Amino acid sequence: MEVIFGSCLCGEVKFKCENTFSQFHLCHCSQCQKTTGSAHASNLFTQPENIEWVAGEDCVKRYDLPGRAITSAFCKSCGSPVPYLSISGKALVIPAGILESAPNISPQDNIFWSEHASWYEAGIKSKKYDGFPT
């Protein structure tokens, strides 16, 4: 099976896993907007045991939102999101943006669409640049 690697922004937290993701959701709920600081979270789901921490597991900080099945796990040094075990323990959640290569699946859906950011669709339609606009 193909192995895929990922890391946080500063490189302190590093991991690898098999590229066997079963679900890929773009979550637009208001809590995911707050945990990412963006329009949505891009989360991959795999088996709970499908991770090997290469470095920095002790640098991972976890926050579980009381009363909701919402978790934020991040590097204590740079704040980047990192993999975490779901509250139920049935899935490992890996933020897609921290992977160093493409996952085996593409996004399957946009969940909690009724909560999507009011500016999201305008952003998708806006001009595209390869770097900063001139």
From TrEMBL:
InterPro entries: CENP-V/GFA, Mss4-like_sf. Keywords: Lyase, Metal-binding, Zinc. GO terms for molecular function: carbon-sulfur lyase activity; metal ion binding. Residues 4-109 form the CENP-V/GFA domain. Coiled coil: none annotated. Pfam families: GFA. Belongs to the Gfa family. This is Glutathione-dependent formaldehyde-activating GFA.
